[in-house]
Design a protein that fits this description.
By secondary structure, the protein is of the alpha/beta class. It is built from twelve helices and 13 strands. Keywords: DNA-binding, Transcription, Transcription regulation.
Length: 307
């Protein structure tokens, strides 16, 4: 450990280098860090001597990163972000009860966040930080203790617990429904179909379930459910959306069923976490709580398929 410390640059050297690399200027870095240009230049020299390699090419009154410097800058910038995040989390909860949770945007906004006060009330020693993610990621490279995942139970390097299923319904604006007056499943092919990246085969599965033969389907593609819902409200087409995430739009009749034929999605919702965090007590408490919440929701929710 002692040998490793001798080769570990000080935080002041790293902050000077990160600022100079990001701004491509010793002068600008000095202004940002409230130092002199000479101080920044000396700190960069000390760091280069420690590393045994030049980080910048110095050309008259300009500097630019060497290829080695660019690689080092990316690594140091990410490391400083992690240090900053860890420090902010500790300051928010000095007892260490912080849960960093990656969430799907619409699920997090419309289903999870309104229920979080119950969890926080029952666990006052835990601070929950939320960040949106649309797809699985490497937990080793992200500041996340767990994540909400939709799809198949497939997340390399993670453990998963099933939370719940969803029922999707084909919805559109009232004006589009009036214009097309859909009567049979195949009639929906007359209107534009809106697709979700997270459910790329949803429409194909829906038409197959209705025994409606189709040719390859095309249409606008959305990476977020809320954007697809707004597109349907605006009359851009028919969207196949989870009923429980558009309850307000259905109640207000901003969206209406294009045809009353709901379908269970092939994908499901899971809680995912790295094995290294399995016994982390804020995660243990959250896992137990969200499983209870989803079970209660499944038993009392307004599922179109149960009507």
């Amino acid at each position: 450990m002692g040998t490793a410390r001798r080769f570990l640059p000080s935080m002041s050297l790293l902050r000077a280098f990160e600022a100079a690399a990001r701004l491509q200027s010793f002068t600008a870095a000095a202004a940002e860090l409230n130092l002199t240009q000479g101080a920044i230049s000396r700190q960069i020299r000390v760091l280069e001597e420690l590393l045994g390699s030049n980080l910048f090419l110095r050309e008259r009154q300009t500097v630019r990163l060497t290829s080695a410097g660019e690689t080092y800058a990316r690594e140091i910038r990410e490391a400083l972000k992690r240090i900053s995040s860890a420090t902010l989390s500790f300051r928010a909860n000095p007892k260490g009860g912080t849960l960093n949770l990656a969430i799907l945007p619409t699920f997090g906004t419309r289903w999870l966040t309104p229920r979080l006060p119950r969890f926080l009330s029952a666990n006052p020693g835990i601070t929950v930080n939320l960040a949106t993610r649309l797809a699985p990621f490497d937990f080793n490279l992200e500041q996340a203790d767990a994540a909400i995942h939709f799809g198949a139970p497939d997340w390399p390097g993670a453990e998963l617990e099933l939370l719940m299923s969803e029922t999707v319904v084909p919805v559109c604006s009232p004006s589009l429904l009036d214009a097309y007056k859909f009567e049979r499943p195949g009639d929906l092919l007359k209107a534009p179909l809106l697709h979700l990246v997270s459910r790329p085969d949803a429409w194909e599965h829906w038409f197959e379930a209705q025994d409606a033969l189709t040719e390859p389907l095309h249409g606008m593609l959305f990476d977020q459910l809320a954007t697809a819902a707004q597109a349907a409200i605006s009359g851009l087409g028919i969207a196949l959306l989870p009923a429980f995430l558009i309850e307000d739009e259905l109640k207000r009749r901003d969206l209406v069923p294009a045809i009353d034929l709901p379908m269970r999605s092939a994908g499901q919702y899971y809680l995912a976490w790295p094995s290294s965090r399995s016994s982390y007590w804020p995660l243990v408490e959250f896992r137990q709580w969200i499983v209870r919440e989803t079970q209660e929701f499944a038993s009392t929710g307004d599922d179109p398929l149960s009507r």
